[in-house]
Amino acid sequence: MKLLYAKSEAEGARWEDYVRTSPLATCYHRWKWKQVIERSFGWPAYYLMAAEGDHIVGVLPLVWQRSVLFGSFMTSLPFFNAGGILADSKEVKRSLLDEAIAIARKNRAASIEFRHREFHELGLPVKSNKVTMVLPIHGDSEITWKALDTKMRTKVRKAQGFGMVAEFGGSEFLDDFYSVFADNMRELGTPVYSRNFFAGILDTFPEDTYLCRVRHDRTVVAVSFLCAYRERIEAVWSSSLHSHLHLKPNMFLYWSLLAHFGALGYRLFDFGRSSVGSGTYAFKQQWGAEPQPLYWDTWLASGRSELPERNPDNPKYRLAIRAWQKLPLPITKLLGPRIVRCLP
After folding, report:
1. Over the stretch 34-73, which tens digit does the pLDDT of each residue have?
2. Contact at 8 Å (CB) between 17 and 56?
3. 159-199 pLDDT, tens per residue?
4. 2-128+294-308 with 132-291: one CATH topology?
5. What is the pTM of this model?
6. Which CATH architecture has domain 2-128+294-308?
7. How far apart are CA 287 and CA 257, in angstroms?
8. CA dihedral 293, 197, 10, 115 (to 10 degrees)
9. Position 305 pLDDT exceeds 80
10. Domain 132-291 is of which CATH architecture?
11. DSSP string covering 61-76, please?
């Protein structure tokens, strides 16, 4: 077996062929995420392939991030819920893991986080406090509607009574999406990604990326940015204006998403990541969504024993979150991308 560093378009085509046939592959294993991340954030991406003769038998995308604020670490794959090791055997899996550790040591990274949807038995500490919430959807929206409980249908009908309209498109909706998304991130006290990041995704995956905007009169009150792969459609980023929450725009938004993408032929709707017991978890659960565990295996450099928590749930960031919520929106748009690029 030989390990390769996939860099060229020809190697990328071999990578993509392997991912296309792997039953455990996710959207985030696709080759072109390498260029999205490198162009949007400037971080080096190591795309490892294991080959036996002419056959690819495993892949591992790996990104190295480093900053004064958050240190040096690697993730497979940052910014998303999945993208860890794909391998045909335990031996291939171990070889890819060992090579990733060698890269981390060479770069003096403090940790590597491998983001999986399955338990991989890597012999590493595993963070499993996060889940992604998934719901089967149907081509006939009436079937999806009847699967909702009575209380949920009442909530959706109430939202429908306010006269909102859902529209679906692509890059032509990007400005509307980013305006609402940036406003919501400021309200949450979280730095916002750059607009160019989202534009890069739309340009790179035009056939598998969707935007939805919900309008009330002339005001866009809710938005969603979705990525599709195979029969699964994921609402990766969704937001609504706090000033219009009395309209229940999230209820209207998500019902519109379920009906629309079921009609397009997708069969599994992914509401995205949540912490078990959180408010977002409860919101998604009321739609009938079931939690799918996320297994984030973590390698720690010698001398380290505490699993890193570079996220808003970490208590040490509470003061920073409160301060961020008080900043003017234009300032958060300017500073946010410089900070969030350093977070996984």
Report:
1. 999 999 999 999 999 999 998 999 999 999 999 988 899 9
2. yes
3. 999 999 999 999 999 999 999 999 999 998 999 999 999 99
4. yes
5. 0.93
6. 3-Layer(aba) Sandwich (3.40)
7. 12
8. -20
9. no
10. 3-Layer(aba) Sandwich (3.40)
11. EEEEEEETTTEEEEEE
